[in-house]
Amino acid sequence: MTFPAASDVEFGAEDHALTVTELGYGAMSIAGAYGAIAEQDSQTLLHDLYDRGITFLDTANVYGDGESELRLGEFLKGRRYDVTIATKVGIVKGGGPGKRRARGDAAYIREQIDGSLKRLGTDYVDLYYLHRVDPEVPIEESAGALGELVEAGKVRTIGLSEATAEEIRRAHAVHPVTAVQSEWSVFARDVETHVLGACRELGIGFVAYSPVGRGLITDRFDFDAVAENDVRRTFPWFSSENLPANRQLVQRVGEIGQGAGLSTGATAMAWLYAKARQLGVNLSVIPGTRYIEHWDELATGLEKALDDDAVSALDALAEQVRGDRSFDPNWVSGGREGLLPRA
Questions:
Q1: Residues 55, 36: Cα–Cα separation, whole Å
Q2: Residue 49 CA, distance from chain mean position
Q3: Which is a Pfam family this sequence falls into (predicted)?
Q4: Using an 8 Å Cβ cutoff, are 92 and 101 in contact?
Q5: What local confidence, expressed as pLDDT, does residue 96 receive?
Q6: pLDDT tens-digit map of 267-317
Q7: For residue 343, is pLDDT > 60?
Q8: Chain Cα centroid distance, residue 98
Q9: Consecutive H or E run containing 311
């Protein structure tokens, strides 16, 4: 069986450059965010991805209270130097989504890296993100602390997640930022207004998470099957008042993709790569799933290009989406840039 070939993409420059696959894997799913997955099943999934040439793996210390990092650490045994690992610091768990807080002070960042390294079973990570910008701590302090970890050899490059364009520029002035990670999809477009321009200007790579809207923009989404503890139940797109209208938009995505022979999810993936080329952004996309067959379906978005008419038709859907992409607009870059909320 053959699989779509993921090419390499370069983030950053010179001493702060990082080469990653343009298609990676978001490992929040192996910590149970969207439903339980057994340890052995998670290892099988990671091995299947590796066999497909996927070597860019993304996690965070907060995913499953470290469980995602632990499972990746088990997988990394014997192949650490063949895999690019990104993890994150900066979210302190409370009672779940909407009750968490950002923490980005230097002491906390220095403390947390050692726990991540231990769980991952390595003495360095390739990319270390500030998971959320702490409103109580200047971004310069957070970036400086991340930069100190580079000097200490614990981190190769640094990144920011859900940072505004202004925050990106301020952090980059303290220490070169190699990558920015934020949500970007057919339905979530706010990063195109300011953030992607800042990345292009500064030579920073962009990593798109939730490229299919946490499974919404696929042919298989069934809200009735979503568990009570599934994080999606806290997001406005999935509320009872918004979901019916958003499902109609999902159907439209599928109709547009049919002309290219793509499923709904693969259409959303193909659209992202088309937009990145259009906007001049170096992009890696990190879908997350518990099932390799779902991942393979999304990966077909690498195989077939959408024509300009299809891209334009998909572009027009975002303004019709009901609800914000986050439970708290201030939790994401678009909210702090005044681009959210949306009715």
A1: 24
A2: 17
A3: Aldo_ket_red
A4: yes
A5: 58
A6: 999 999 999 999 999 999 999 999 999 999 999 999 889 999 999 999 999
A7: no
A8: 18
A9: helix 308-315
Kindly tell me if the per-residue pLDDT of 94 is higher than 80.
no
Beta bridge partners of 56: 84
Residue 142 identity (one-letter amino acid): S
Report which residue type is found at 162.
Answer: E
Residue 34: the pLDDT is 79
Q: What residues are labeled active site?
A: 63
Residue 23 DSSP code:
B
Neighbouring CB atoms inside 10 A of 308's CB total 10
- Burial of 222: CB neighbours in 10 Å, binned 0-12, 13-18, 19+: exposed
Rounded Cα distance between 114 and 278, Å, is: 40
Give the start-to-end residue ranges of the domains of the chain: 8-216+279-302
In terms of phi and psi (left: phi > 0; alpha: psi -120 to 50; beta: otherwise), the region of 203 is left
- Secondary structure (H, E, C), 97-145: CCCCEECCCHHHHHHHHHHHHHHHCCCCEEEEEECCCCCCCCHHHHHHH
- Residues 130 and 88 sit within 8 Å (Cβ to Cβ): yes
Alpha helices, DSSP H, located in 181-228: 195-202
Instruction: Give the dihedral of Cα atoms 58, 63, 65, 69; nearest 10 deg.
Output: -20
Query: Could you tell me if 147 and 158 are in contact, meaning their C-beta atoms sit under 8 angstroms apart?
Result: yes
Strand 18-21, strand 8-11: pairing: antiparallel
| The CA-based dihedral angle spanning residues 261, 264, 266, 268, taken in that order and rounded to the nearest 10 degrees | 120
d(CA 230, CA 84): 28
Pair 179, 204: CB distance under 8 Å: yes
Give phi and psi for 248, each to the nearest 5.
-65, -35
- pTM for the whole thing? 0.95
Phi/psi of residue 12, nearest 5 degrees:
70, -165
Please state whether 53 falls in left (phi above 0), alpha (psi between -120 and 50) or beta: left
Fold of 8-216+279-302: TIM Barrel (3.20.20)
